[in-house]
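Troubleshooting log. The previous run stalled partway through. Resubmitting the same two chains, unchanged.
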Amino acid sequence: MSSNEQSKDNQKVEKSGFDRRTFLKMSGALVAAGVTIPALTSTLAPAGLASSGSKSGEEEGVKWTMVADVSKCDPECTICEEACADENNLPRYEGKLSRYNPYWLRIVEAKQEVTGVDTDEITLPVMCQMCDKPPCTHVCPTKASFIRDDGLVMIDEHRCIGCRYCVIACPYRVRYMIFKDTPDDQWTNHKVPKLMRGVASKCTFCVHRIDDGKLPRCVVDCPEGALTFGDRNDPESEVAELLMPGTSTVLRPNLELGVNVFYLNL
Amino acid sequence: MAKYYFESIKGKSPWYNFAVAVLALLVFGWLIATIIRFYAGFWITGLNHSITWGGSEVLFVLFVGLSAGSLLISALGAIFGQTEYKILSRVAALNSVLFMAAALMMLISSWGRPDRIFLPFYNINPRSMLSLNAFVYSSYITVGIIYLWAQLKNSEKWSRILAITAVCTAIFVHSGTGFIFGVINGRELYFSSLTPLAFVIAALSSGTALAMLILHYSFKATKRKIDPRFFLQLSKVMLGLIFFVFFIVTIEHLIHMYVPEHYAGEEYVMFSGSFFTYVFWIQLYGIGFILPIIILLYPKTRSKLGWILTASVLHVVGILGERILFILPGQFRYIPILPGYEFFSNAYGDGETITYFPMVTAWIQYIGVIAFVALAYLLLIKWLPLLPQEAKLIKPAPAPDLLIEEGNGEEEGGEEETDAGAAEAGAPA
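Second attempt completed without errors. Output:
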């Protein structure tokens, strides 16, 4: 987040509580003590999401978490995939080119391998797991892949050189190359930058919506309520309650990447 | 002390001009293909969401490897006072620069945004080997050029200093390239701490093989004389290195096979009957290791020049197979993102083995980069005194029974001459 945006954020929050003079003093102090800005951002950024999380956020920062209840996921339904494509202007090509469609969120069908038992099919949504120790970011040669102050793993598509190292390094295969420039008629949501050809892209947890205080689009659109999103550092949040019983699981836990997408009833 | 007189080639024959013209055309093709690739996007090369590193990366690692061997041999010779390898040192320095340049051409033209070529230099990510390699590769080329220049100036002192620098940089370059792939812990077929070592040794062995081919055909085409015992010595070095690569590659696969978690991946490469099974057993083990080892050990063939050159070609082809196995199978095999579960195929290719074949644009790029090496070599040996007039070994022969029978061997070598040697060989002065 640039310092401009930060000061805008400050403005929004501070104006409500202080008069103009205090605000000016405050911003002067902020400029002088540039070191404190990162610390402040982490507390101000989630202020948009109207939740009681801001207090615990001040102490530990937010921990954006997605919880997917696999038992609620309908095998026939692809609404989250479509909602994701719609929200993030993901191109949908027809025919032969359809193999180049990026899926920031994809629905995976799987079946547990238990010898002698014909297990049921399950479906689960797989999106960027927002690791705390993301291999993609570790290998990026230009720091185009970076971790935002609130822990979200992001891509600066203007800095990406298209070397595809991150796509290979991602243990969940959730990074997608953009094979072609997005056609103008498919660029519907102007809050998300138009996808550029030749760079890596991936799920952002709908970062533009989080910053506006909204939930990610897949969470909102899921008709079964299988997806839950929130700050798990806030003990009263829905995600914290869902994770409380300690029965959730993550994908490839042996890699110990500190992922922030949890699956229930898997 | 052996002393060699270096002289540039005349380069006036119609064959030479014809070769230069054809190669220049192919390099131009590379440029056009790269521009098309840049504007059209990745899909034009045959890559897909699952196979994002394709033939370009295979050739990139092959070229990085080939740039090494001859340089290390000749520079090590310079450092330890083995003067007989000085004959090789100018061509070796040239090769290292040319092949590294070709490798970078291949890599950068395979990027999605080659227009951002300078970004890695000022956005350094110290955790990323690729980021550090931007500096390692560029310093390697710089050191190679200065090393060549010092030799052209006949500066003994600087040649020696730069030889040491070049060797150190080369070690960084090759282990660093191996590092890029070895650290990918999310894919079992990549993740290995032996990769950097295997890469260095394979680079040495294939580079030595290529150096022999280039030297032989350069001398043959310009009708200069070279002492065949020189190849005999190098072939022994190469044999040792081939054994070493053989050993490392084998133990790496054996250790992976021992881990139940990784066994499925190894099985896919070694026993599944896929494309990689053939590459592994026929190209890498058969052509790359077993045949050259037999040729270089069997008393009737090991001392014949033609057979030595054959073994060199076979080994380079085999190492191409090693590089293919290095880059591709790790991507062809799907990632078990949920261990213990069987995946059903979907639009994105979970649960299935993906196919990939480079499209025409990609092939034009590959051929163009190979042509670039040949073209630059042909032009530079004409413009600069890089090849010795006559290469003699001053040292006494190792043993009388190892003397080369000239004549019959060379014809066999000529038939085998393929991709690596062909470009340089096809141009008599």
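Takeaways: Chain B touches chain A through 54 residues (CB under 8 Å). Residues 86 and 354 of chain B are 48 Å apart (CA to CA).
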